[in-house]
Structures are given as C-alpha cells and as structure tokens.
Amino acid sequence: MKLKKIGIAAAIALLSSGITFANQSHDTNALYVQASSYIGPQSNEDQRLVSELIKQIQTDGKLSGQLELTSRNGSVAISGRVDEVTMIYRVVEIIKRNSSVKNIDVRQLDT
C-alpha cells in the first residue's frame, strides 16, 4: 500500500513539473523571427535585405509569433504565424518601409 502511494505521488509530481515546463516554454508575447532555412542560395543583396527586415520586425514591441523570411530579387515571402490578424498588417507595413522590397507574399502567414 505504501508503494502505491509513493507511485501516485511520483506520478503527480512528474505531471505537475511537465505542465509547469510546458507553460514556461510557451510565451505568448514572444516574437521569433529568422531567415528561412528551406531556400536555396540567395544573393548577397537578398541576404542583407532579410537580415535588415528581421532586425526591423524584432524591434517592434507589438508583435508576437513565429516568422520566417525569404527574399528573391527583392520579393519577400513571409511564413509562420502571428498571434492576431492585425499583426499580419503590422508586419507588412514594417516590410513596406524598406525601399529594396519589390513584392510581399504573406500567403504562408497565418494566425
């Protein structure tokens, strides 16, 4: 009987720590932006553009979600998710400010 109580207590402790860990690892107000790793070689110009756009997006304190950016000849594609629909518009506005951007594709961006 004592072994059963220890097993139940251990299971509860394990579940509790897992739930706490899960809650800590998901920060709804965080923003993760990176260059897409699924693309082929990019020109130096496109690499600089993506790096610059990532910095600009990261400095915006009103965005949260996970984004990946790619660029081909100044055409920027954004994929991932943001926490609210209005954030899609905000990301587009930030990217539009850059004069090197020719087109913006948000078809792979979701909430």
UniProtKB/TrEMBL annotation:
Secretion signal span: 1-22
Keyword annotations of the record: Signal
Source domain of life: Bacteria
Name under which the protein is recorded: BON domain-containing protein
